[in-house]
Every structure is written in C-alpha cells, then in structure tokens.
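Students often ask why we bother encoding 3D structure as a string. The short answer is that it lets us treat folding as translation between two languages. Here is a chain of 145 residues written in the first language.
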Amino acid sequence: MVRVPGLQDRLAEKKPMIDTPSQQDSDLEALVKALRRFTAERGWQRFHSPKNLAMALGGEAGELLEQLQWLSESESADPDPDRREAIQHEIADVFIYTIMLSDRLGIDLIRAAFEKIALNERKYPAATSGGGPDEHRPRGSAANE
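And here it is in the second language, the structure alphabet:
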C-alpha cells in the first residue's frame, strides 16, 4: 500500500491535500460564485436538485462523446479548429455541471479529487499497475513485455 505523507492528518483536519496556489483557489471560488449568480438571476435554483444536476451532467458528457464519436485516434488527438471549439464548449459544460453538483451537495471538489487520487494510488500502485487497462501486475513481468 502506498502511503501519502500526512494524508490522514490532512483529511482529519480538512486541510487541502497539497498546498495549492491561492490564485487557483480564488479562481474556483470565483467560478462557483459566478454560477450561483447566473442561476439566481434566472430563478433556476428550484430546478437544480442533485438528481437534475447529475442528469444534466450525463447529458453534457454525451454531447462531448458525440463530438469525438467515429473519429480516429489521431483525429481525436488533433481535431480541426471548429471541432476543437465544440469539444472545448462541451468540456466546459461538463466542468460547470460538476462544479454545480458538488456545490449543491457541499462537496469540496478539489479535496474530493485529491482524495480520489490517493485512493487510486493505493488501489493501483505504480509497481503493480504496468501494461494495458485490464492488467494489474508487476511491471517488467513476462505478461507485460
């Protein structure tokens, strides 16, 4: 098991998982405030239950997938400018709904992401997670070569 120094202390004390720049924190908070204002100005709060936000998030994820569907690997890695802009807009929609859902549920999104990384580090240790997506064995083993 991989131990992240100070992880349990930071989780218990509700401190950030890493020391993030204050500008990053203020940018996220500014975005949350802007989304709250945008929603309030339109009277949409009553529609923003966790269920509805999750459904909207799923819909936007589908629209993102639609932009990449049927493209080759190389086309998806280097889309033409119009498609890239459409992908950018769909990624922004997914990001916005993720922020709105986490805000509605009182989840610290940055903290949750760092917690998930720590969980994945324990679940998929680097020493045993080499190879393809379905493999979970030591790097350098015969199956990975």
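Translate back mentally: Helices lie at 7-13, 22-42, 50-68, 73-77, 81-105, 109-123. Keep this in mind for the problem set.
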